[in-house]
Design goal:
The protein is of the alpha+beta class. The chain is built from two helices and eleven strands, in the order ααβββββββββββ. The chain has helices at 8-21, 25-41; strands at residues 59-65, 71-79, 87-88, 94-100, 103-110, 122-130, 135-138, 143-148, 154-162, 170-173, 178-181. The protein is globular. The chain starts with 7 loop residues before the first helix and ends in a 6-residue tail after the last strand.
Length: 187
């Protein structure tokens, strides 16, 4: 095996096989992690267009694959310096691999029971900086913030069980205790 090239097509076939054989999100992400890391490190996988960022949004999501039913979405995310997201969930499993730069990931815990529409009380529970080769996983209800703390564009490979604009996910303002629906611009 060694340094053999690993293609997006092979990765998608492996994702299909994993999710056909396994339904437990933790076990799925455990199997996807080494494959996502392998794809992100494949020579020639990094493309010049991955450095493009949507100035207004502060980042871009470059869609590489999604199934016809919106499952198994694969993106490359590009983050402008000192830009990122508000706290958000995915409502699906996720595996993220750092490819370039420094992405600070802040993890949050929800304290309320979610019964009051538009309201969420969060507390910060962890923080780390992801660099090239670092891996992060999220379960459907995990909440995190991503922020580029480096001086140039940060790039990461994102794999989701379902395309994130089709999950009914939320973004949060921890200071104002607000929860609202989230849909992103996809390049």
């Amino acid at each position: 095996m060694g340094n053999a090239a690993y293609s997006l097509e092979q990765y998608v076939e492996d994702l299909r096989a994993i999710t056909a054989a396994e339904t437990d999100n933790v076990k799925i992400t455990e199997q996807v992690q080494p494959l996502a890391t392998k794809l992100a490190a494949t020579p020639g996988f990094m493309k010049e267009e991955f450095y493009h960022c949507n100035e207004e949004q502060g980042f871009s999501l470059h869609l590489l694959h999604e199934e016809d039913n919106h499952d198994l979405a694969v993106f490359v995310a590009s983050w402008l310096p000192n830009r990122g997201t508000l706290a958000h969930n995915h409502k699906t499993w996720a595996v993220v691999v750092g490819m370039h730069g420094q992405e600070q990931e802040t993890e949050w815990r929800r304290l309320d029971d979610g019964s009051k529409a538009g309201y969420a009380e969060l507390e910060q529970i962890g923080q780390r900086v992801m660099t090239t080769g670092a891996v992060s996983t999220c379960m459907p209800d995990d909440i995190h913030t991503v922020w580029n703390v480096g001086e140039d564009v940060a790039i990461s490979l994102h794999t989701y069980g379902r395309h994130i604009n089709y999950t009914g996910r939320s973004e949060f303002d921890p200071d104002a205790n607000v929860e609202r629906p989230l849909t992103l611009i996809i390049d």
